[in-house]
Write a structure and sequence with these properties.
alpha/beta; 18 helices; 445 residues; Glutamyl-tRNA Synthetase, domain 2; RNA-binding
RNA sequence: GGCUCUAUCGUCUAACGGUUAGGACGGAUCCUUCUCAAGGAUCAAAUCAGGGUUCGAUUCCCUGUAGAGUCACCA
């Protein structure tokens, strides 16, 4: 017997902006399908006409595009009414479902719905992460599977579609375990085979509650894009929420995740979404970026008013790339840093309080003398060799001869940046270049 | 409340009967150029409790406790 091809699916409903929590299930299904050279199907579950919106469908489509999770097939349930109808008719004929008269208690309720004739049995199924699970379906009663023949409900459409699309593995969160027995009942009624189930851990917030829509943590996925997170960072982080490959390596590319992913290593206990860890993972992926990619991101996040500063130019940004990136965990922070003026001194002469040039309890005369000796030492360095290594060498020689290095280093750095906190004077002078450095030091005198 | 599931540092987790219970994030301390950042080093930090089973339990079983999920004419 030949191996059955793996087919997985992810089925979001377009009733809100697709949030990060959902990414993990999508990812697991994607990884599993790719690992076994199977198919990954994306299905838009838009059977609820009042809550489903086209804009939300476009939204999750954009998320998949951004994350680079490619799907092999795409379906919209709202376009499959005829298929569901066919099954509904068949089950009606077989008396496995029936049209039920209802007492109308609330506005909007129908006087007639379609109910499933519950065989009231014990349903037992094997879950790849939870083991064997058993439910008495009697308590479910004759649950409703369609409003009417034209409008089937979730449990029914899911089962029909999974059957029609030959889904072999259903990987989802444990919030769905209690849905499983009734879906199995429907499967048995339409004669569908039972797929492999794998119910992963629930993603929790800091309060240990399931991520809910109004949780500040479950932001719409694209906000992460807008804030300069890397898809590979978010993917790596989400993959590790409730799964891990066992080793000590933590930073994985998408391809590596495909290689490593396995159902057996999915976790049972709920996993708390820890934003700080995301920051770290994302930063690790930033470090992995090639230089030109880093530049691209940096440039995208520099505010326009900075780009209009007198000495702004891309070459200078290129030189600043390391100090910019050292200070961030996602690129949006570059924008923040520029917005509060952190780096303006690189493109325009700083304005500062002269008194602050003086280090601790040194005198103005000493400070002047120190700056002067720095100037003459710096002048010796050729313009085309004005590197941080060279400036460091000459400046440190002077600094070490003083009673404390700060007597020299502080006024130099401050004269260059005008800031209490800034990168070190060596890298600043390299970025500024010999002329600008000397001129700012001169001015400080 | 019913049903179902879960339980290792604060967090994500490793250890699938035998380890000084490992790693990472975060935290603390120190070092590395005055400051900031990055980097390096070191430290603190856990097997929910009680019973079994076993020569031996984080690991298997039971009870308790705690937590989570779910109980729609939503998905």
């Amino acid at each position: 017997m030949s191996e059955q091809k793996v087919i997985t699916r992810f089925a979001p409903s377009p009733t809100g902006k697709f949030h990060v929590g959902g990414i993990r299930s999508a990812l697991y299904n994607y990884l599993y399908a790719r690992k076994y050279n199977g198919k990954f199907i994306l299905r838009c579950e838009d059977t609820d006409p009042v809550r489903s919106k086209k804009e939300y469908e476009d939204y999750f489509l954009d998320v998949f595009k951004w994350l680079g999770l490619e799907y092999d097939e795409y379906y919209r349930q709202s376009e499959r009414t005829e298929i569901y109808k066919k099954y509904l008719h068949k089950l009606l004929e077989e008396d496995k479902i029936y049209i039920s008269k209802e007492e109308v208690k609330e506005e909007g309720q129908r006087s007639e719905v379609i109910r499933f004739r519950n065989p009231n049995k014990i349903v037992t199924f094997r879950d790849e992460v939870l083991g064997e699970l058993s439910f008495n379906t009697t308590e479910l009663g004759d649950f409703i599977i369609a409003r009417d023949i034209e409008s089937p409900l979730y449990h029914f459409t899911v089962v029909v579609d999974d059957f029609e699309m030959n889904i072999t593995h259903i990987i989802r969160g444990q919030e769905h375990v209690s849905n499983t027995p009734r879906q199995i009942l429907i499967q048995e009624a339409i004669g569908a085979p039972r797929p492999v189930y794998a119910h992963g851990s629930v993603i929790l917030n800091e309060e240990r509650a399931k991520l809910s829509k109004r949780d500040p943590l479950v932001r719409p996925s694209l906000e992460y894009k807008d804030e300069g997170y890397l898809p590979q960072g978010l993917i790596n982080f989400m993959a590790f929420l409730g799964w891990n490959p066992g080793g000590e390596k933590e930073i994985f590319t998408l391809d590596e995740l495909i290689q490593e992913f396995s159902l057996e290593r999915m976790q049972k206990p709920g996993a708390i979404f820890n934003p700080e860890k995301l920051e770290w993972v994302n930063k690790e992926h930033i470090k992995l970026l090639p230089e030109n990619k880093k530049m691209e991101f940096i440039l995208n996040f520099i505010p326009d008013n900075v780009k209009n500063l007198p000495e702004f130019n891309n070459e200078r940004i290129q030189k600043m790339s390391n100090i910019l990136i050292d200070r961030i965990t996602h690129f949006g922070q570059i924008k923040e840093h520029f917005e509060i003026g952190e780096y303006n001194f690189f493109f325009t002469e700083p304005i500062y309080d002269k008194a602050k040039l003086i280090y601790k309890n040194t005198t103005a005369e000493q400070t002047n003398a120190n700056i002067n000796s720095a100037i003459s030492a710096l002048k010796e360095i050729p313009e085309n060799n004005f590197t941080k290594e060279n400036t460091k060498e000459v400046l440190m020689k002077i600094a070490d001869s003083l009673s404390s290095r700060g007597e020299l280093l502080h006024p130099i750095r401050f004269a260059l940046s005008g800031l209490d906190k800034s990168p070190d004077p060596f890298i600043i002078s390299e970025i500024l270049g010999k002329n600008e450095t000397l001129s700012r030091l001169q001015k400080a005198l």
